[in-house]
Amino acid sequence: AQSVTQLGSHVSVSEGALVLLRCNYSSSVPPYLFWYVQYPNQGLQLLLKYTSAATLVKGINDFEAEFKKSETSFHLTKPSAHMSDAAEYFCAGAYGSGNTGKLIFGQGTTLQVKP
Amino acid sequence: DAGVIQSPRHEVTEMGQEVTLRCKPISGHNSLFWYRQTMMRGLELLIYFNNNVPIDDSGMPEDRFSAKMPNASFSTLKIQPSEPRDSAVYFCASSLTSGRAKGYEQYFGPGTRLTVT
Questions:
Q1: pLDDT, position A101
Q2: pLDDT at residue A31, rounded to an integer
Q3: Does A107 touch chain B (CB under 8 A)?
Q4: DSSP for A19-44?
Q5: How far apart are CA A86 and CA B59, in angstroms?
Q6: Interface residues from chain B to A (CB-CB < 8 Å)
């Protein structure tokens, strides 16, 4: 079955440190892949998406993600964490031709940023 | 564009009452999704529509839940009768999944926080 797995439900970093949130997908055919962020009491907001045009994808707020087919991974990184990055992050994938739009979401990772 | 619009933003109701949540998708989008989010169960897909047709309602928890999309610019999610365990945040999202501009990314509304007492 198609799935998206996020390793680590909680990640804690210090302000200014590297942020690394892990995501793996299951499929021999790379899907469209996305990262979303959810700030407290808000809806999910698109951070970035992969569509096969480039393996390194840049998103908003200095986040980026690298698609690695050999590792079936799409990890999210940011060089220097800011307090305002504290939120929940979701990885998601859209699979298959003729896809009517359903996304498979990971379980989410809560990012805590310590001062 | 105004983005996905949901109403009401907050709803408090008593057990047994009917609740109707409303969603206006982004103009031009052809797919619409209803999600529920709770601390215990996380983000769950309830139902989604493509070109106003329900495609998959396997996530609808019970017959008390129903959803309609009478036209491309409006959808409702109804709970009748409501129960305390229905308390959650309900999100609507839309995406473009056909044509040259398709991208599959979903745009989420701000959500409706439902409390059933």
A1: 78
A2: 75
A3: yes
A4: EEEEEEEE-SS--EEEEEEE-TTS-E
A5: 30
A6: 4, 31, 33, 42-43, 45, 48, 50, 55-56, 91, 93, 95, 97, 103-111
Amino acid A3: pLDDT? 87
Task: Determine how many CB atoms are found less than 10 A away from the CB of residue A29.
Answer: 8
Taking only the tens place, the pLDDT of each residue in B26-60 is 999 999 999 999 999 999 999 999 999 999 999 99
Nearest to B111 among A43, A90, A105 (CB): A43
CB atoms within 10 A of CB A72: 15
